[in-house]
Each structure stands twice: as structure tokens, then as C-alpha cells.
Amino acid sequence: QKEVEQNSGPLSVPEGAIASLNCTYSDRGSQSFFWYRQYSGKSPELIMFIYSNGDKEDGRFTAQLNKASQYVSLLIRDSQPSDSATYLCAVITSGTYKYIFGTGTRLKVLA
Amino acid sequence: EPEVTQTPSHQVTQMGQEVILRCVPISNHLYFYWYRQILGQKVEFLVSFYNNEISEKSEIFDDQFSVERPDGSNFTLKIRSTKLEDSAMYFCASGRFGQPQHFGDGTRLSIL
Predict the structure, then answer these.
(1) Is A104 in contact with A7 (CB distance < 8 Å)?
(2) Using one digit for the tens of pLDDT, what is the confidence trace for A38-83?
(3) Which of the listed residues A16, B47, B96, B101 has the most CB atoms within 10 Å of its CB?
(4) Closest approach of chain B CAs to the CA of A110, in angstroms?
């Protein structure tokens, strides 16, 4: 069974701080990794995607991938109360195009 | 920016009835998906569709479920005889090869 694991949280950070969200996956052949943000009762919204080892930056967001350790992380700099949401890690494993989602980490940014 | 649209936003149905959830994927996308999310749980894959056929399905997608692309724009999910445990948010997504999937706003399905 191919799994994607996330700490459910909540992760509470003060406004302006860096939020660090982590995700591990079981399938070593996984190729593509995505971070989605989901507000309560809403659909997942794409934040970042990363395919290669290393860091990828987009504005306040940085995705980090380490395939050897099978983890992917998302850093949110200068966190804002509007960043408060559940962050979903999604992985496309080998031989498929479907997403396997983690349970999500609930982030609370305190004003 | 183009988006995936889903109708209806909320569907209430009696147990045992058939329900059809509708989706209009982004026009130049070729891969289509249905996911569901039971309240408080994670998003789960149901089925993927490419080149007018199912390319992959999960254990959840049993004989009570079917998908169809009846014309060039719509992508539907049918549940033949609904059960209480089918109550969930159903998300349609579409994408291109090697690109992230884009999700619709979802249909909240409530089975009474």
C-alpha cells in the first residue's frame, strides 16, 4: 500500500514567522510531488509542485524535495493569517497518474 | 484563468437513488479524474479517464460507479444506487500530461 504521511497538526505559528510543513512517502519510485491548500469546505488549490531533488521557490513559498530520504516539505515565509488552512501533500507514484494524498496538516497563523 | 466547473454544488438524494455529478474540465486538458473526500478525512482517488476510457480506478470505484464523457466538454460520475456512506464531497480534476491537476469546487453529496 503506497502511503503519504503528514502530521495532522494543528501547527500554530505567529504572524510573520516561517511555517514548515513536512510530508513523507513510501513509494521510492514516486516522481512528482504537489502541495495544495484547502480552506474548510473548499476544494484543493495548487500551491507548488516539484519534480527534482532540491529547493524550488515561488514568492513566499519554497518546496524542498529529498528523494533519498523520501520526504518533501513546504516552507511558508512571512506567514499571514490568510495562510491558515489545511495543506495537502499529494504524490504521483510510479506507474500511475493519480494523486495519493496525505491527510493534510492544519496550519494556524496567529495574528 | 480557465477553471474546472462542477454542478450541482450540493445534491441531496434518498438512499438507493441514482445520482449524476457533472464536471466541465479545462478545455485543452486530456486527463480527467474524480476524487472524493468524506467529512474530516483525506482526499481519495476514485477514477482517472483518458482517451475516452478509464485508465485507472480505486477499490472504492465498484460496480455502482460509472464515468462518462458524453460529449466534448462534459465528464460525469454516476452512482447507480446510493448508500449512506457515499455522502462526501466529490471533486473533479483535469490536467495535462506531466502537469498538476486542477480541481473544481466540488459537489457536496448528502444521502438521506
Answers:
(1) no
(2) 999 999 999 999 999 999 999 999 999 999 999 999 999 999 999 9
(3) B101
(4) 23
Q: Quick one: cell of B27?
A: 478545455
Determine the Cα–Cα distance for residues B71 and A53; give it in Å rounded to an integer.
41
- Interchain pair B42, A101: CB under 8 A: yes
Residue B24 is placed in which grid cell?
466541465
Task: Please report the residues numbered 29 through 88 in chain B whose beta carbons come closer than 8 angstroms to any beta carbon of chain A.
Answer: 31, 33, 35, 41-45, 48, 50, 55-56, 58
CB A28 within 8 A of CB A71: no
Beta strands in chain A (DSSP E): 4-5, 11-14, 19-25, 32-38, 45-50, 54-58, 61-66, 71-76, 85-92, 100-101, 105-110
Please give, rounded to a whole number of angstroms, the shortest distance from the CA of B50 to a CA of chain A. 10
Give the residue on B whose Cα is nearest the Cα of A49. Answer: B100
CA dihedral sign, ordered A18, A23, A28, A34: negative
Cell (9 digits) for A61: 513559498
How confident is residue A37, by pLDDT bands cut at 50, 70 and 90?
A: very high
B36-86, pLDDT tens digit by residue? Answer: 999 999 999 999 999 999 999 999 999 999 999 988 789 999 999 999 999
Give the up-direction half-sphere exposure of residue A69: CA atoms within 13 A in the CB hemisphere: 10
Count of other CB atoms within 10 angstroms of residue A110:
11
Cβ contacts of B34 within 8 Å, gap of 6 or more: B21, B23, B46, B47, B67, B77, B90, B91, B92, B93
